[in-house]
Amino acid sequence: MTGETMKVLVTGGAGFIGSAVVRHLVGGLGVAVVNLDKLTYAGNLDSLEPVAEKPLYRFERVDVCDGRELRRVFDEHRPDMVMHLAAESHVDRSIDGPGAFIRTNVTGTYMLFEACLDYWRRLEGEAWERFRILHVSTDEVYGSLGPVGRFDEDNPYRPNSPYAASKAAADHLVRAWHNTYGLPVIVSNCSNNYGPYQFPEKLIPLMIISGLEGKPLPVYGSGDNIRDWLYVEDHAEALWRVLNQGRIGETYLIGGRAERTNIEVVKTISALLDELLPDSPHVPHDSLISFVEDRPGHDKRYAVDDGKVRKELGWRPHEDFEANLRKTVGWYLENRAWWERVRSGGYRGERLGLGGGGLQKSADDPSCSGLQIDGDSCGNVMSRPHSGIHMRGSKLR
Ligand SMILES: NC(=O)c1ccc[n+]([C@@H]2O[C@H](COP(=O)([O-])OP(=O)(O)OC[C@H]3O[C@@H](n4cnc5c(N)ncnc54)[C@H](O)[C@@H]3O)[C@@H](O)[C@H]2O)c1
């Protein structure tokens, strides 16, 4: 099937990575996309402005926990494939309010997979053969590494934060829906993403914007936590390859081979701001660095062995971390209107993630709080028994 005729349902397409995927598919490859997104605080249609007017692009404001709406979307749009990115994604928010993470990441994944199963079973011939789902997950499900070694696809699951635990639970559901019902699924687990259009609560945009405004650059603990940084546009390309060329039932780890301590990242951003804004009253920007209380349960180090995706699918990042970080800082300097609008939506750069959690707190709105699952939204509208199992491909590892 050619890119021109293919239609992909992308969940979470108004988020940071999802919008990069949608821009890549619609703008870069000419693939039709249905973007299904609830538009939480993290969803932003401004990030889709480059493709929003194209006939290949459609938007559906739908909650992944809403089974009836999911079924309507499948029946109306009849996608060839699904990329599942919708999630609550910020570790600090999961510490303050884990309920929304359980609801969207666990129940939402379950609801989506039930909808996929129902739809897939009603497909026939080539459409049935072609259908597949890519579940996008994180390397945080594997827990924390010591000073040496890297995660690979066989790593045991050891999630430490409520966010990581909710994603780990979703990954296990995916594995079970493949092994039990034969649902054609592939999983990808990636490292920390960075790049344009990232919500300003995450490390890199927060440091760029705070530095620009002469505010303190808050670094957790002593700044020696290590992350492996993946440029979001490289990631979008990798996800498309995994969806199309990856083996069903397999897991693929995607990383940037760019391990940096947080303090190294912040110092590099400060130096870039000094260079790009030589007349700023805040030069040298690294004088704004301030060390703050560490995040509870802060994983020390993540690093990903992405040998499988490179070897099997021929994927690799285009440029190195420093070149991509320079592009990212430049983007935030040139796109002030984008992040100012995001901030006017409520987030002001305040410290998150010290709070006590609990069922009543929500990452976004009261309807997301706690574990309440009402019949309409999260009831099992796919009530047919799971009979007639069709197996394709190998097992998830
Ligand atoms: N950002 C990273 O560094 C990173 C790293 C590893 C894995 N991931 C994973 O990649 C995926 C995308 O991450 P991101 O950084 O783009 O996240 P994001 O928070 O920027 O975007 C999430 C999107 O999902 C939507 N959403 C949230 N709840 C929803 C619901 N109930 N129904 C429908 N839509 C809903 C939001 O509106 C938003 O558009 C997530 O699954 C995340 O776990 C992200």
SSE order and pairing:
Elements: E1 7-11, H1 16-29, E2 32-37, E3 57-61, H2 67-77, E4 81-84, H3 91-96, H4 99-122, H5 125-130, E5 132-138, H6 162-181, E6 185-190, E7 192-194, H7 203-212, E8 217-220, E9 226-231, H8 232-245, E10 251-254, E11 259-261, H9 262-276, E12 289-292, H10 307-313, H11 321-334, H12 336-344, H13 375-378
Parallel strand pairs: 1-2, 1-4, 2-3, 4-5, 5-6, 6-10, 7-9, 8-12
Antiparallel strand pairs: 9-11
Bound molecules: nicotinamide-adenine-dinucleotide (NAD).
Residues 11-12, 14-18, 37-40, 42-43, 63-65, 85-89, 104, 108, 136, 138, 167, 190, 192-193, 199 line the site of nicotinamide-adenine-dinucleotide.
Describe this structure in words.
It is a single chain. This protein is α/β, with parallel strands linked by helices. It has a domain at 3-194 and 228-257 and 298-319: Rossmann fold. Helices cover 39% and strands 14% of the residues. The chain has 13 helices and twelve strands. It has helices at 16-29, 67-77, 91-96, 99-122, 125-130, 162-181, 203-212, 232-245, 262-276, 307-313, 321-334, 336-344, 375-378; strands spanning 7-11, 32-37, 57-61, 81-84, 132-138, 185-190, 192-194, 217-220, 226-231, 251-254, 259-261, 289-292. Helix 6 (162-181) links the parallel strand 5 (132-138) and strand 6. The longest helix has 24 residues, at 99-122. The radius of gyration is 20 Å and the shape is globular. Bound molecules: nicotinamide-adenine-dinucleotide (NAD). Nicotinamide-adenine-dinucleotide binds at residues 11-12, 14-18, 37-40, 42-43, 63-65, 85-89, 104, 108, 136, 138, 167, 190, 192-193, 199.
